[in-house]
Design brief:
By secondary structure, the protein is of the alpha+beta class. The protein contains 13 helices and 10 strands. Helix 1 packs antiparallel against helix 5. The chain is elongated and about 85 Å long. It starts with a helix and ends with a helix.
């Protein structure tokens, strides 16, 4: 949580004597506070209200679900200019009512401040008027940050271009100035695909409250997020950011968690500056493609760990191109079990015992299937070059 927003939400909590939370207009959690004088984490003692499932999920997962968002928006909070009282609805998981303070700037909503409602606070209470003044200051800050993030996103968008000459160099310099000290520290690019391309590059609503985020934009059908690392080889911050992106985008599209709606993410190798961003962008997108091709659990892959896909994702393929003739028959749906057998066998470096164990079959069954693979492909699996051709053809087919 950013300290400036935390200070604002603490001010609201102190004014009203009840814990408050600040969410962006996309319902991502920005800051939350507890009643002054309560024991750490003892929000129930502070308010006399037991946390309901919606409040707990928002704090733990840092985002409300689409269903919860639709429930609250049905009370007109996106159009309101003053406090809105929302009654409890246990069927929606809202055990306790809420008071919503819209966070606006020049008439545009940028977020919401939420209060648990014990029914004792009147909407005409002068303290709520004071809290709305804090909400207005919060809206001004969110609007300013949004403009800054949009500008930084445009710099990142231009800096990722493979070609660009002086224009790209200027964008890199502007990006370095915008992100400050982060420009010289260890960085990783995260790619999430597919992501709808905005008509205005680098603009449009993007996920908020990502940990250690330096910049983000949409380019080449993917979301690019530049994440600061704590150490040159510690990817935890980038993995966390990628996981949150996958979860939030997946839920927004289908209600699913990570990997939903066909989303995958990839991490580039760490970088110590901004001059190599186009190469890092290639790595991140390639890793995301590999995550999809190899059905990586969680939908996240790292460039340094995708093996042959590092080479295969660099090979341009013409639209509608067919796989190598030797494997076309093997790749038909009717032979999917044989194709998987061959791939696992080759992944296991041709070790029959390991392959049979991985497939859960008897070794004789493995040999029988491999003989059928040889007949279908015309390849000799005792020959190294034939093995290499088959292995690469099977991996390439996954990238289609």
């Amino acid at each position: 949580m950013r300290e400036d927003y935390q200070a604002l939400i603490d001010e609201v909590s102190q004014l009203l004597g009840t814990p408050a939370t600040l969410e962006g207009r996309d319902f991502s959690l920005i800051a939350f506070g507890a009643h002054e004088g309560a024991a750490e984490g003892d929000e129930e003692q502070a308010t006399g209200l037991e946390l309901d499932a919606v409040r707990t999920r928002t704090i733990l997962q840092r985002r409300s679900t689409p269903a919860v968002r639709a429930f609250f928006e049905s009370f007109g909070i996106a159009r309101a200019s003053g406090p809105v009282r929302i009654p409890p609805d246990p069927a929606a998981g809202v055990v306790h009512g809420r008071i919503c303070l819209p966070v606006r700037d020049h008439g545009v909503v940028h977020g919401y401040i939420w209060l648990l409602d014990d029914g004792e606070l009147e909407l005409t209470d002068p303290r709520l008027a004071a809290a709305m003044a804090v909400a207005d200051r919060t809206g001004a800050q969110l609007a300013a940050d949004a403009r800054s993030e949009e500008r930084t996103g445009r710099f990142l968008h231009a800096a990722l271009a493979e070609r660009g000459g002086a224009a790209r160099e200027e964008a890199v310099a502007a990006l370095a100035a915008a992100v400050g000290e982060a420009a010289s520290g260890p960085l990783v690019l995260v790619a999430v695909v597919p992501w709808p391309e905005e008509e205005d590059p680098g603009a449009g609503p993007l996920p908020t409250a990502l940990p250690r985020l330096a910049a983000q934009c949409v380019r080449d059908g993917a979301l690019a997020a530049l994440v600061r690392l704590r150490t040159p080889h510690g990817l935890e911050a980038a993995r966390t950011a990628a996981d949150r992106l996958l979860r939030s985008a997946g839920r927004a599209a289908t209600g699913e968690a990570a990997g939903g709606a066909g989303l995958t993410a990839g991490l580039s190798s760490p970088r110590t500056g901004l001059t190599d961003l186009p190469a890092a962008w290639h790595e991140a997108r390639a890793a995301a493609r590999a995550a999809s091709a190899a059905a990586v659990p969680g939908g996240l892959a790292e460039w340094d760990a995708i093996g042959p896909y590092r080479l295969l994702t660099s090979i341009p393929r013409a639209a509608g191109s067919l796989p190598d003739p030797s494997v076309r028959e093997l790749l038909r749906p009717a032979h999917s079990e044989l194709a998987r057998t061959a791939e696992v066998f080759l992944d296991c470096a041709g070790q029959a015992g390991r392959a049979a164990a991985a497939l859960g079959i008897h070794r004789q069954t493995l040999y029988y299937r491999l003989s059928r693979v040889e007949r279908l492909t015309g390849l000799d699996l005792d020959e190294g070059e034939d093995r290499l051709l088959l292995h690469m053809a099977l991996k390439t087919a996954r990238l289609s």
